[in-house]
Specification:
Number of helices: 10
Radius of gyration: 20 Å
Largest sheet: 10 strands, mixed
CATH class: Alpha Beta
CATH topology: TIM Barrel
Helix content: 25-40%
Distance between the termini: 42 Å
Strand content: 15-25%
Length: about 325
């Protein structure tokens, strides 16, 4: 019997992704999402992906993310772990997923993980709760200001529980221009220079390189020289992702540079060539169109559920006034 969450909807496609919309049993109008996903390049035995929410909505309010439409606070460690249990449950019959060589456990659905201390609790607890399962936690963060203590604790957790390349840290940088970063992610956050300094403290020989993620829209400032002048290619890699077709991205007029057919602008091609010539590992990461069709972008299901509830509530209030 689950204490915190009720599954409101489960949508998706077999061997692509299942997106769970969860409604709180304890707080009316609180919805979050978690995802059971597959990487089409690999079999489930080779790689499987689980994506969890760390907050009830998100306070960062990125211009391209539908998860930022509301914020109702942090999730407890129990609320986070119950999401994981919900995703794992259909696979407890012994299918390939739980025996996968690599299970990426992303704290990247709804919320900014570095603003929630419970994420650190969960990272400490997972190895003892799920012994023998090859989780590789992945934390995706904009690195909000004031989170230095959280990030210092993360180094200790990584070294104690997830050494030898079993942890992935990803910074959502999204532009090489600090002013444009502030526009895209309107929250006080670390500068590129501070991210670089932290990355050197975080990285040990044998670790996965720290990922610098750029979800680039057309015309977003992106200069190889600024990256190479700030980040060491021995410590950092560069990942390029599309701007997904979300409600917020459309509202902000953000059109993706990297298209879902793998094409991108000549401008971006030139900058990526420069990075590779300077020793950077560059990853082009594109989700499948099938994932987009099943509504797997962060916050979309919760966004439409809350809007539907608001519409119903507004209609009831209108009827009450008319009586």
């Amino acid at each position: 019997m689950r204490k915190h969450w009720e599954v409101i909807k489960k949508i998706g496609q077999e061997n692509v992704a299942w997106v769970y919309l969860l409604g709180s049993k304890l707080e009316q109008g609180v919805f979050i999402e978690c995802v059971d996903a597959y990487d089409p390049r690999y079999s489930a035995r080779q790689k499987w992906v689980v994506i969890l929410s760390s907050q009830k909505g998100c306070p960062v309010k990125c211009r391209f993310c539908d998860a930022s439409f509301y914020f109702r606070g942090n999730l407890s460690s129990e609320e986070i772990l119950e999401q994981l249990d919900i995703v794992l449950e259909p696979h407890k019959n012994g299918d390939d997923c739980l025996h996968s060589e690599k299970i990426k456990l992303h704290f990247a659905r709804m919320g900014e993980p570095a603003l929630n201390p419970a994420v650190l609790e969960v990272l400490r607890e997972i190895p003892s709760i799920y012994p023998g399962i090859n989780f590789i936690p992945t934390v995706a963060t904009v690195a909000p200001s004031g989170t230095e203590k959280w990030f210092e604790e993360l180094i200790d957790i990584k070294n104690i529980f997830y050494s030898g390349g079993r942890f992935q840290l990803q910074f959502s940088v999204n532009s090489t221009d600090e002013d444009f970063r502030d526009y895209l992610m309107p929250v006080k956050k670390w500068s590129a220079q501070k991210i670089s300094q932290y990355g050197h403290n975080f990285f040990r020989r044998g670790d996965r390189k720290v990922t610098l993620n750029y979800a680039l829209s057309e015309g977003t400032p992106f200069e190889a020289g600024k990256i190479s002048g700030t980040f060491d290619p021995e410590v950092f890699l560069v990942k390029i992702t599309p701007v997904n077709p979300t409600y917020q991205a459309a509202r902000a007029g953000l059109q993706t540079d990297l298209k879902f057919d793998g094409s991108y602008s000549e401008r971006l091609a030139r900058e990526l060539d420069k990075l590779q010539s300077r020793g950077y590992e560059v990853i082009i990461s594109i989700g499948s169109l099938e994932e987009i069709k099943v509504g797997s972008n962060c916050g979309q299901l919760a966004f439409y559920e809350v809007k539907a509830m608001e519409s119903i509530k507004s209609g009831i209030q209108h009827q009450d006034k008319a009586v």
